[in-house]
């Protein structure tokens, strides 16, 4: 009996020791290992992550293998004494990456779809809610293009109490933390011709819709993935420039080239005439074919037309005004650069740092899935920093996933710097990938 009691005592002691070690690993004060520690006791750090892409169905969702790691990281953030804010910079919920023939809402509505996402990703949603309910860390969400039409009410339904920052138009938002007005955090899609909300197109068939062509692009890409990346079985019908049509026809020709490149990449098995794209959301109803998206012409060099998004090239200027774009982008450049992550980075500089009406010194985007930190200058020649927070999808071709940005603001000490650091969380290990700093 005595030996049993001694053995029990030893086991309890070992268990307690393991728990203490576990807690220390979760809440380490070693700033070289813990991205959520500033080495002091001030709660001032801002964590930014984006492009998590939570889906409703594990058969096609882009974030499945990374869910456990994300939940673990959120639990670390929750117990971090120095984290003041956690910002989700768009594409938290994914309404776009759904194979073309699949009815996204399964015959129901967006509210049900969002609840299905919460159920399918319960561990991560619970982890976010734990942070929100603790009320120690402000959790803020701004919309991205993949959750463009998801309403504030439906986000609130699964993340009650989350701080939502939205523009006066659906699908956009830019966040500057209350104590740090020189920081701007947004998804970055408002500057992209394919991904910015489109209040002008398709109103004759779907009044009120704001779905841009990137929605259909993504539905086709998701189908290609679900089909196992099949070889090409279709040929994109060629068209030629209409030299008499001015900038409008030139822009529509470039728009066709963008679609041609897309369809040569995403080589789906279905014929371009098949009505395979099932919509039934945001005012869009019925099924559409690839040919509905492709510009066409009756004879070489003649007028170029398109069925869906008819006139999209001519409404770009108005679309930018509606979407609160400070410095407008010429339509030809906007179409030519739709697939360029470098263009998104450039827009951070153009819209914020080189804009005399902006006071921002740190800008953080998501959207491109290309994580980076780039030192820049503003129109006064002052140092600024741009960061992209990357993504949490399982497969980020040519790059790692599980990335996030941490901003540690400067103190009142004149020698103190504001640090912007980029991290990767892989195999339970946090790695610093890049960093920069400035004083403003």
Question: What does this entry look like structurally?
Answer:
Helix 3 (110-120) packs parallel to helix 5 (152-158). This protein has a 7-stranded mixed beta sheet, with helices on one face. By secondary structure, the protein is of the alpha/beta class. Mean pLDDT is 93; it is low at 1-31. The radius of gyration is 24 Å and the shape is globular. 43% of the residues are buried. The protein has helices at residues 2-26, 67-78, 110-120, 122-134, 152-158, 213-226, 246-265, 316-322, 331-336, 341-353, and strands spanning 45-49, 83-89, 138-142, 163-164, 174-175, 183-186, 277-278, 287-288, 362-365, 372-377, 383-388, 403-408, 418-426, 429-438. The protein folds into 2 domains: 41-192 and 340-438, Metallo-dependent phosphatases (Purple Acid Phosphatase, chain A, domain 2); 213-317, no CATH class. Helices cover 29% and strands 16% of the residues.
Please give the radius of gyration in angstroms. Answer: 24 Å
CATH architecture of the largest domain: 4-Layer Sandwich
Give the class from helix and strand content and strand pairing.
Answer: alpha/beta
Principal-axes shape call:
globular
**Contiguous helical run count:** 10
Q: Would you give the CATH topology of the largest domain?
A: Purple Acid Phosphatase, chain A, domain 2
Mean pLDDT: 93
């Amino acid at each position: 009996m005595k030996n049993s009691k001694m053995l029990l005592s030893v086991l309890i002691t070992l268990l307690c020791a393991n728990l203490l070690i576990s807690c220390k690993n979760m809440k380490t004060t070693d700033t070289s290992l813990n991205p959520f520690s500033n080495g002091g006791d001030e709660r001032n750090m801002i964590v930014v992550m984006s492009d998590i892409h939570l889906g409703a169905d594990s058969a096609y969702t882009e974030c499945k293998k990374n869910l456990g790691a994300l939940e673990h990281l959120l639990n670390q953030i929750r117990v971090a004494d120095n984290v003041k804010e956690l910002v989700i910079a768009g594409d938290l919920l994914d309404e776009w990456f759904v194979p073309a023939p699949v009815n996204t809402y399964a015959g129901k509505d967006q509210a049900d779809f969002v609840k299905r996402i919460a159920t399918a990703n319960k561990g991560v949603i619970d982890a976010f809610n734990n942070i929100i309910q603790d009320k120690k860390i402000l959790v803020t969400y701004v919309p991205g293009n993949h959750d463009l039409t998801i309403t504030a009410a439906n986000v609130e339904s699964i993340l009650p109490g989350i701080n939502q920052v939205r523009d006066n138009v659906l699908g956009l938002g830019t966040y500057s933390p209350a104590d740090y007005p020189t920081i701007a955090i947004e998804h970055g899609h408002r500057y992209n011709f394919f991904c910015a909300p489109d209040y002008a197109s398709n109103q004759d068939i779907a009044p009120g819709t704001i779905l841009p062509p990137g929605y259909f692009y993504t539905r086709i890409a998701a189908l290609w993935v679900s089909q196992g990346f099949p070889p090409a079985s279709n040929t994109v019908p060629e068209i030629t420039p209409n030299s008499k049509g001015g900038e409008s026809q030139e822009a529509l020709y470039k728009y066709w080239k963008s679609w041609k490149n897309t369809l040569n990449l995403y080589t789906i098995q279905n014929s371009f005439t098949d009505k395979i794209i099932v919509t039934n959301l945001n005012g869009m109803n019925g099924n559409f074919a690839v040919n509905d998206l492709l510009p066409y012409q009756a004879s070489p060099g003649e007028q170029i037309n398109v069925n869906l998004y008819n006139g999209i090239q001519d409404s770009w200027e108005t679309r930018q005004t509606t979407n609160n774009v400070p410095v407008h982008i010429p339509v030809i450049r906007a179409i030519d650069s739709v697939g360029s992550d470098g263009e998104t980075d450039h827009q951070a500089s153009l819209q914020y740092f080189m804009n005399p009406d902006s006071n921002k010194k740190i800008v953080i985007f998501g959207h491109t899935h290309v994580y980076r930190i780039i030192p820049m200058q503003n129109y006064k020649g002052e140092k600024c920093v741009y960061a992209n927070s990357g993504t949490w999808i399982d497969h980020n071709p040519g790059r790692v996933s599980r990335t996030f940005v941490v901003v540690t603001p400067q103190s009142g000490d004149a020698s103190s710097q504001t640090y912007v650091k980029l991290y990767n969380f892989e195999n339970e290990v946090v790695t610093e990938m890049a960093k920069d700093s400035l004083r403003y």
